[in-house]
Amino acid sequence: MSVMKKLQIILYFFSLLFFTPILFIIVLPLLFIIRGFVKICAKCVRLKEAQIIGGMSATLAVDKIYTAPFINMTLTFYLDQETDLDLFKSRFISNVIEKQKPCGKLQYPTLRKYVTEFMGYLFWTLSESFDPSNHFKLYKTGEVVDEEALQKLLNEIVVKPWVVKQPLWEFIMVENYQRQEENGVKVESGGKRKLTPVLIFNAHHSLLDGFSIVNILIKEMTSLDVDKFIAKPAPSLRKSDNQEKKFAFGKLCKKLSFPLRALYEISTYSAIEGDVNSWKKSITMTPTGRSSTFDNTIPLMYIKGIHRSYGVSFTTLLLAGVCGAIRRSMKLNSVVIPEFIHCCLILPMPAHPKSLTNHSTIGFLRLPIGDNDPKRRLQEIELSFQKLKKSIFPKLYFYMIKVLGDLPSGLLRKIIMNNSSVDNATVCLVNFPAPSEIFTINSSLVNKFKLQVGPMAGTALVYFCHSYNGRIQLSAEVDKEIQNSENISKNLITLLQEELDVLHQISMNP
User: Fold this and answer.
1) Residue 243 has pLDDT above 60, yes or no
2) Which residues contact 42 (CB under 8 A, 6 or more apart)?
3) Which of 79, 332, 378, 487 has the maximal Cβ count within 10 Å?
4) Is a pLDDT exceeding 50 seen at residue 238?
5) Is 105 buried (19+), middle (13-18) or exposed (0-12) by CB count in 10 A?
6) Which 3 state secondary structure label does DSSP give 101?
7) Which one, of 168, 49, 157, 169, lies nearest residue 115 by Cα?
C-alpha cells in the first residue's frame, strides 16, 4: 500500500470519527421523527393500506420502475412436459397471494401493491384494481421457440416498464420451446428435440430478492424444505470453562473495539480506487442493456473434486474460474490486461424474513487477473476470500443501506445514481440460493432454471451461479456498451470451464 493511500485512509478515518457522533445524535433521530410524521400523514389521508418502504428495498425502488427499469429480475423454469397455466394460477393464488398468517393478516401483502410516492417518501400502496388473472400471460406465436428466440424475449422482458398502479410481478408461459439439451447433454442440430413449455417469473427487484423467490415459488408451491437454503448464524460449540472465559474476554474486546474497526473498514473501502481497464471505461452510469445470457452446466462432483484437491472453498474456485475466464477473454479481444480487477459478491444475510423483502449485502474481492499462473491466482483469491469472511464490512454495509433507505426518495435517488456501490468493480458474482433436489411445477419436472437481472449500472460483467440436480448452472451477461459484447458473452462460460479444466489438470499432476 502506497504512502498516499495510507494517508487517504487516515483522513477518511478521522473524518468519520468526527461526523459519526453527529450522525447518531442528530441526523438519525431527525430522520426517525420525519418518517414517523410522514407515516401518520399517510394514514390521515387514507393512503390505501400504505406501507413505507425502507432499507435495501427503498434503494432499489428509486429505479425508473414505470418508464425504464434497470433492475427487473426474471427466473426462467424449463419444464419437461406440457402444463396447465390456469392450474398453476389457481394454486399460486391460493398458496401464495391469499395465504394468511395465524393472526389473519396476509403473508405476502406486497404482491397486491405498487410503488407510489407521498411527501417525498416511497410507499407500498394497495392496488384497488388488482386482478391476479392479469399477471398470468401466455406467449404463443404458433412457431417453434429456440434458445435464441427465448433469450431475445427475456432481454425484452427484463427491461420492460411496469403498468402504473399495478403490482410489480408477472408470470409468462412460453409454448413450443425447443430444448437444446437433455440431462445436461447438448442435442445435435439434427437430433430429435422435444417441444416443451417454459415458465418465466418476472418481478422488480424492489419487491423481493433471490431468497424471497425461492420462498414463494418453491417452498409455497412444492413440498421441498427450503429453510436449509436460508443463511443462519453458525452454531456455537460447547467449550470448557477456560475456553469459555477466553471466548467471553475475546468477545468483549471485539465489542469494545467494534466502533474503531468499523470506521477503519469503511475508510479502507472508501479509499478503494475504481477499476481502470478498457471494459470499465466503456460503461456509463446510465445502462443501455445487457447482451444475451448464455448458459451452461457443469457436474457438481467435478467442481467439488477440484476445490477439495486444493483445499479451498467452493466460492474461491468459482472466483478463480471467473478471473481466468475474464483474463482469457481480454486476451482474445486484444484488451490490455490490468494487474487486478475487483469483483462484487452478493452475500446473504442470516435469518431472512418470511416476508417478501431484500435481505442481502455485498463484499469486494481483488482478482489478480494480471498473474499468468492459474494456481497462484487461486491461492491469492483464497487468501482474499478468507479475509473477506472475517471482515465486518459486509455487515456494516447492510446496516448502512438500512439507514440510507430512510432518506427521502429524491435525495436517495441522487445518491444511488451518482455513487453506485458496484461501480468500483468490473464483475459481479451472484450465487443464487437454490435447492439441489429436483422439483416439479404442476407435476412437470423442472429440467433447469436460470436467473437474469436487468442492466445494473457500473458493472461490465455479471456471472450467475446456482446448483441444481447434481449440476452447477452458470450464465453470464456483458454490458452492451462494451465492444463485441455479444461474442464476449457467448465465450465467457466456455472460458470459465477451460480455466477449471486447467486447474483440474494441475491438481492431477502437481
Assistant:
1) no
2) 50, 52, 118, 119, 123
3) 378
4) no
5) exposed
6) coil
7) 168
Please, are residues 62 and 406 in contact by the beta-carbon 8 Å criterion? Answer: no
- CA proximity to 340, closest of 427, 457, 429, 461: 427
Question: Which stretch, 178-192, 233-247, 420-434, has highest mean pLDDT?
Answer: 420-434
Residue in this structure with the C-alpha cell 390521515, named with its chain if needed: 44
Say how far residue 92 (Cα) sits from the centre of its chain: 24
- Pair 174, 150: CB distance under 8 Å: yes
State in Å, rounded, how far the first CA of the chain is from the last one.
33
Interval 138-170: pLDDT, tens: 998 878 888 888 988 998 898 899 999 999 999
DSSP 455-486: --TT-SEEEEEEEETTEEEEEEEEBTTSTTHH
Report the alpha-carbon distance of residue 111 to residue 98 in Å, rounded: 10
Of 367, 352, 365, nearest to 398 (Cα)? 352
CA distance 116 to 108: 18
Question: DSSP letters along 378-390, please?
Answer: HHHHHHHHHHHHH
Q: In sequence order, what E strands does 66-109 have?
A: 72-79
Predicted model pTM: 0.87
- Name the 3-class secondary structure at 412: helix
